[in-house]
Amino acid sequence: MFKVIRKRDGREVPFDETKITDAIFKAARAVGGEDRQTAMELTIEVLKMLKKKYNGQVFGVEDVQDVVEKVLIEAGHARTAKAYILYRDKRTRIREAKGDLMDAVEEILAETNRENANVGNSPSAKMLQIASAASKKYYLTRLLDEDFSNAHMRGDIHIHDLDWYAKTLNCLQLPLDRLLTEGFNTGHGYIRPPKRPTSATALAAIILQSSQNDMFGGQSFPFFDRQMAPFVEDADESETFQAMEALVYNLNSMHSRAGSQVPFSSINLGTDTSEAGRKVTRNLLLAYEAGLGRGENPIFPNIIFRVQKGVNFEPGDPNYDLFQLAIRVASKRLNPSFAFMDSSFNRPYGDQVAYMGCRSRVMANRRGPEVTPGRGNLSFTTINLPRLGIRAERNLKRFYGLLSEVMDLAIRQLYHRFRVQARLKVKDMPFVMGQGIYLGSEGLKDDDCIEPAIVNGTLAMGFIGLAEALVALTGRHHGQSEESQAIGQEIVAFMRRRIDEACEEYDLNYTLLATPAEGLSGRFVYLDRREFGIIPGVTDREYYTNSFHIPVYYPISSFEKISLEGPYHKYCNAGHISYVEMASPPVHNPEAVEAIIRHMAASDMGYAAINFPVDFCTSCNLMGVINENNCPRCGSAAIRRVRRITGYLSTVDRFNDSKVAELNDRLPHSLS
């Protein structure tokens, strides 16, 4: 009856009516049918309708499927029709996923993928990115519940590190002292405890690298000064400095994850007042200040100086000199950032709180001891606040209704991911779980599931674009209006209350995160612009503002910005950070930096840093702010530009387009 049919790719191929019969019979069997004869009779009706509708014209596969659905429904085979429609929809999603995957692979091979500024473009990195793209498509189409995958693809939520959904966990605070004292095994034999500081820091780098290979997020030492102190007690300053210099070099050159990136490392220090602990802090800061081999600014480790009254914050405190040194180094190198042990939410834990990665914080624990070492975040999912603000049409009651709905969905999705992660076995994470590093993993066997350990971890729900959401709701963001500031605080407080309720409902450590949006900041605004158009102050830029931050383009003083952002830190118990932007390295104005840090502490911040440009000519080693494309000294175009991206440092050439747009919009904050 028909000679050819047009495929989806435009090719015309011989028509085969048995494929229609097979598809109908398959749908019938899905609902308990076993009569192929009926499928053949229905095929005849399909052919009649095709002849009547197309009258000799060539039709396509989709046209045939439309007619099959119509015939099944009109013939009274409603259940078979439903099964056929569901199967057709599933095949469509699989085809679309394959097409999206091929597009993603082409983008990776063209070296344009910049979702994570810490991932390079080496052959192994590209291989990892291709595997990542395939994993994302698989999880969205085959593993996730449809309401979760649809919410992610629409842009209501963003499931971070989706490619690792069923493979591993996010980040971890490592018990360095125990590993160095007892020794460990990375898979090819036992490593005995070190005796000298250089060996100890070399093994510290290997520990970070080995843990990174088991996980997808940041790796951190929570009390590095205290943990490393025993290994420098009888070492002089020179030997200790060389050991710390070697650590900085290693953490900027030792690649993990199949060679795609260096470990995403953080080191907390500053509160150990023993002479050995002070020696560790002093020499790591000095080694970081010296830079890499030609004076380049190190990218890693992320050094976090823990500030505490009575320890290092006031003149006369035993480590006050180290606080002054930390300010000096930060004024030149961007690091260290500063964690405040005396904030209202950190103070109850003494000096036990540590931060890692972009801003992660792990402390409270419903299922075990409230300690930092051996614990981390399991996964996090971010809510698109600007989209809710747009949809609410300036109606706050409606906004809270929409927010409740999407929070409930995100909480359920995080629990789903927890259940998937809980089925992983110890042998899937041979270092982190096999060596008993994760709290609760001690004594587990290779084939045991890791649930007894990961109940000590956290599930984080994050948010992005509070500023744009407030513009959508009130016409002004929280830097422009006291009313908007009050509404902003109530929104975030509302989110924290719902998260605390989730802790009770699931008996798990749900937490609220001030999201570090790298690739996400551009993805959400792209999707919202496509749906809602360009809305001034909301979707008119290439990115959404991070978490609760004042927009980077808004002119404001350092102290006012700190005062406005400070109140949000206490709600975000999964992590938070605030920045002050400066026009150039304040190497000759440490007093201003100290005043800023003291105001951060007074404003109840938990974690904060100062930002400024750090440019370095790799031809003549000139360092400073180089505004031109070429070095003013030697004329070279080989300029290495280091900036803070979302809580960690990176070179600008690794920024994605949305982050480049945000970087270009950044205004320095005045000191008045």
Automatic annotation (TrEMBL):
PROSITE patterns: ATP_CONE. This is Ribonucleoside-triphosphate reductase class III catalytic subunit. GO terms for biological process: 2'-deoxyribonucleotide biosynthetic process; DNA replication. SUPFAM superfamilies: PFL-like glycyl radical enzymes. GO terms for cellular component: anaerobic ribonucleoside-triphosphate reductase complex. InterPro entries: ATP-cone_dom, NrdD. The keyword ATP-binding applies. Keywords: ATP-binding, Nucleotide-binding. Residues 3-95 form the ATP-cone domain. One of its GO terms (molecular function) is ATP binding. It comes from Desulfofundulus thermosubterraneus DSM 16057. Pfam families: ATP-cone (PF03477), NRDD (PF13597). The keyword Nucleotide-binding applies.
